[in-house]
């Protein structure tokens, strides 16, 4: 008996979900599109929340930014849950390898006492800044509108927890548990940290989700991470024999380099929507940039003493150039 095999092509009835097809047409969609677009709940709410009767549960009017389509925001990293967790898993493996290398080769023992003390005084109180970043980004995710806008903020919030945990690991590597207690005491009462602490606590009461994004992710983190982890840890400390510290904090450097691409895209999209949006974003960025620069100046003095003003001026200049590329003038 002879059997002939032949190929039969079956045409799918549809190529993607209906909500994606309505926006992009009936064609194969990416996982990012399927996991992002038109997922915001918009109907079937019976009453307004009792804790905020002036707004719907999910309400674009919570921010002064106006968008014709809140799905105009796009994450250049194309992060949805699966892509995000895979990317961070690889980075965690690299970070763990770095920490293990520093510990197993006792590279901390090569650091001078003065440099190690300065690194502890600079880095460990930043755990509390990262904790504030976690709360603020979770708030933007909760009260923002449109999954394309809100989704990256919960990833950012989780990343800030990771930063706080890695700083704790660095503290235990360079010192011990008393170092963590000393850092908490410094954050609560030392004059050098009170400006930054006030900045963080003032952001806790911001109601506008987009302004909170500007204050936390754009202005504060946009100055803090390049200054601390690039200029000080990767520059000043490394030149003074502190390469093990740079190795132990490599995650923060890599993470900020990746994440600022999304922050810049979010600024550019809102500013290009309308002149009113652009003016508002420029006003917020200028205000919070100046406050962040003033709050970080005493912190920079821990590492570079008299060179703090020059270091802050360099960071502000680089920040302004970055914002110009994103389409706003500050």
From TrEMBL:
A GO MF term: oxidoreductase activity, acting on paired donors, with incorporation or reduction of molecular oxygen, NAD(P)H as one donor, and incorporation of one atom of oxygen
Chain segments annotated as coiled-coil in the UniProt record: none
Keyword list, A-Z: Monooxygenase, Oxidoreductase
Signal sequence interval, chain numbering: none
Pfam family, one: Phenol_Hydrox
Family annotation (InterPro entries): Ferritin-like_SF (IPR009078), MP_mOase_hydro (IPR012078), Phenol_Hydrox (IPR003430), RNR-like (IPR012348)
Protein name: Phenol hydroxylase
Organism: Nitrogeniibacter mangrovi
Lineage: Bacteria, Pseudomonadati, Pseudomonadota, Betaproteobacteria, Rhodocyclales
């Amino acid at each position: 008996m002879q059997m002939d095999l032949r190929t039969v092509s079956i045409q799918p009835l549809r190529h993607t979900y209906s909500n994606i097809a309505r926006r992009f047409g009936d064609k194969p969609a990416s996982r990012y599109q399927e996991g992002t677009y038109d997922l915001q709940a918009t109907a079937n709410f019976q009453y307004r929340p009792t804790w905020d009767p002036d707004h719907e549960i999910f309400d674009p009017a919570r921010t002064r930014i106006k968008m014709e389509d809140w799905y105009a925001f796009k994450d250049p990293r194309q992060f949805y849950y699966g892509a995000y967790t895979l990317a961070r898993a690889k980075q965690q493996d690299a970070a763990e390898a770095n920490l293990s290398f520093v510990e197993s080769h006792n590279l901390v023992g090569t650091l001078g006492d003065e440099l190690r003390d300065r690194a502890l005084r600079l880095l460990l109180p930043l755990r509390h800044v990262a904790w504030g970043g976690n709360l603020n980004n979770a708030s933007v995710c909760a009260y923002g509108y449109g999954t394309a806008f809100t989704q990256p903020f919960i990833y950012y919030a989780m990343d800030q927890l990771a930063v706080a945990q890695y700083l704790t690991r660095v503290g235990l590597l360079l010192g011990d548990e008393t170092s963590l207690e000393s850092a908490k005491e410094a954050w609560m009462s030392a004059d050098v940290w009170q400006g930054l602490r006030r900045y963080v606590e003032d952001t806790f009461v911001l109601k506008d989700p987009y302004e909170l994004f500007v204050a936390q992710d754009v202005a504060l983190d946009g100055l803090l991470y390049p200054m601390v982890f690039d200029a000080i840890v990767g520059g000043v400390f490394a030149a003074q024999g502190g390469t093990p510290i740079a190795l132990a904090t490599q995650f923060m450097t890599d993470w900020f380099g990746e994440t600022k691409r999304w922050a810049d895209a979010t600024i550019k999209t809102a500013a290009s929507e309308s002149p009113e949006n652009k003016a508002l974003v420029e006003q917020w960025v200028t205000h919070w940039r100046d406050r962040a620069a003033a709050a970080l100046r005493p912190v920079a003095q821990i590492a570079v003493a008299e060179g703090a003003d020059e270091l802050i001026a360099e960071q502000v200049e680089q920040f302004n150039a970055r914002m110009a590329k994103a389409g706003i003038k500050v």
